């Protein structure tokens, strides 16, 4: 701080030193003025001491103002009005006025942005709910004519496209709700089977077409989570798992329980993920080599899953071996005794 202060006041220091040099030159060159060497050096020393004392006084005053301002701006809940008692000079007053103006503009723009985001979120939510009605009607029509698939083979293609649209609509809905997740969740005891089986039923058509064998073990364990959000997470994981599973492959669902946590494993026998891609699977828009070859891959499923599990206090991991398969692990931490007491 002192280095910058002295650098900014260099013109003052140079002016005083030049003025002192001029006076010294006059005293030495003017024969009519008789000054003893003691008085000469006393004058120079006194001037320099006064200069140093003045710089110290100014520096301490400015340092107090700037330090208070710096500490205040580090706090998100700052109030620039609190700086008013620390203003001592016109320059500091002008600086504070400028900062207050910038602060007002920033707050106005931030408020306008929040309003715009809220309106956008409300629009997306309304749009999703509106489009869900015709999608549900389409599904009912498809189910009503399922026995006539042999006459209308194109009906199968329509159902495939319906599932893609429904999945994308779901992603849009949960994406819009994600920023308000802390106000839109309810933690309760849920069995792992309640998270897995509804999603297996949802993708039953794909499983049947690929002749996938479903292997499940020990899914009656209870975990504490929000059923709605975690069903969405499992759906995103299962969508990728089925998409990249080979014909007549196997999907495995099993769990592991310890005193501290419960883990749900979702494993496939697909192509696997290259080692260099594993650290990036949760990045927004990342699809990897397999995703680039697959039509319609968005790279958003695992990104949303990571955001949701982190917000709910869970954990999601991906382990994979190339050409052997991939395992997604969802970890649900058990509430400790302190959590239980805090809820009483």
Automatic annotation (TrEMBL):
Keywords: ATP-binding, Cell membrane, Kinase, Membrane, Nucleotide-binding, Phosphoprotein, Transferase, Transmembrane, Transmembrane helix, Two-component regulatory system. Residues 126-336 form the Histidine kinase domain. One of its GO terms (biological process) is cellular response to phosphate starvation. Its EC number is 2.7.13.3. PROSITE patterns: HIS_KIN. GO terms for molecular function: ATP binding; phosphoprotein phosphatase activity; phosphorelay sensor kinase activity. It is a multi-pass membrane protein. It catalyses: ATP + protein L-histidine = ADP + protein N-phospho-L-histidine. It is found in: Cell membrane. SMART domains: HATPase_c, HisKA. PANTHER family: HISTIDINE KINASE, PHOSPHATE REGULON SENSOR PROTEIN PHOR. This is histidine kinase. It comes from Priestia megaterium (strain DSM 319 / IMG 1521) (Bacillus megaterium).
